[in-house]
């Protein structure tokens, strides 16, 4: 679901005023097209986030398609994953580790993990809830905040893309440390998500050789 154009315009204007280096990144990337995806439920989104970890998007999409076919519905439910055998889940392409993660998510969702109420919580509370699940660390929770809930002030300091883009934009010799990133990004509040989007997109720009 795209954000209101006025909201994005306000965010971009703030970032350009707040930081001259980031202003150059914004200029080079162009219009902001950040749009969180709110389709489906929280459980299905988290299943996908686990599935996509450490493999290519193409491979993950193939496995997800097989999983959907296995359970017989486009949006898997906790009961579907708990009912499937390990052999079935291995057959669709899931590793033993990811099967364990998904089963832990399904069990916790069944036992009362407040997935349906996440959007009512603040960012840190959501991260605390989600990281109770095996296989969901802070980075995965931050991606959920950004791309699922559209929270506007998330800075994923452990994300390689954001680190690499900041190294490039600020002309640092090595990938920046999280503390430096947080200090540098302080003026970007309350739109650090939009800044992160611009940093990711900046890596797609080809520079003249």
Question: What does this molecule look like?
Answer:
By secondary structure, the chain is mainly alpha-helical. It has 2 domains: 82 residues, Endonuclease Iii, domain 2, CATH 1.10.1670.40; 106 residues, Endonuclease III, domain 1. 59% of the residues lie in helices and 0% in strands. It has 12 helices and no strands. Helix 1 packs across helix 2, helix 3 packs antiparallel against helix 7 and helix 8 packs across helix 9.
Any low-confidence stretches, pLDDT <50, length ≥5? Answer: none
Number of helices: 12
N-to-C SSE string, H for helix and E for strand: HHHHHHHHHHHH
Number of self-contained structural domains: 2
Rg calc: 19 Å
- The residue fraction in helices comes out at 55-70%
**Overall 3D form:** elongated
Q: From the 3D structure, determine the CATH topology of the largest domain.
A: Endonuclease III, domain 1
Report the end-to-end length measured between terminal Cα atoms: 37 Å
Question: Could you give the topology of this structure?
Answer:
Elements: H1 5-18, H2 20-29, H3 42-51, H4 57-71, H5 78-83, H6 86-91, H7 96-110, H8 123-130, H9 138-147, H10 160-169, H11 178-185, H12 192-202
Helix pairs in contact: 1-2, 2-12, 3-7, 8-9, 10-12
Features:
59% helix; single chain; Endonuclease III, domain 1; elongated; 209 residues; mainly alpha; Endonuclease Iii, domain 2; 2 domains
Quick synopsis:
With 209 residues, the chain is mainly α.
